[in-house]
What we know:
This protein is mainly alpha-helical. The chain has helices spanning 9-23, 35-39, 55-62, and strands at 43-45, 51-53.
Amino acid sequence: MVKKIQLNDAQWNTLRALQAAHAQKLPTDTIKVSERLRSNGLVMADRQGSLFLTEQGLRRLSQGR
């Protein structure tokens, strides 16, 4: 069983914004990501600095608000 990390509104909206940007193939460099999302493994950055959701981040989104 995966632990459901509690997110505040800003963190939740960030995850949704990253998901939408990826779906529309938009750049993610303007999306501000909190250190908490990174440290919990929900969001990572590639070598160019583009942000993306990890599998854990996608699973957290699928769990709902």
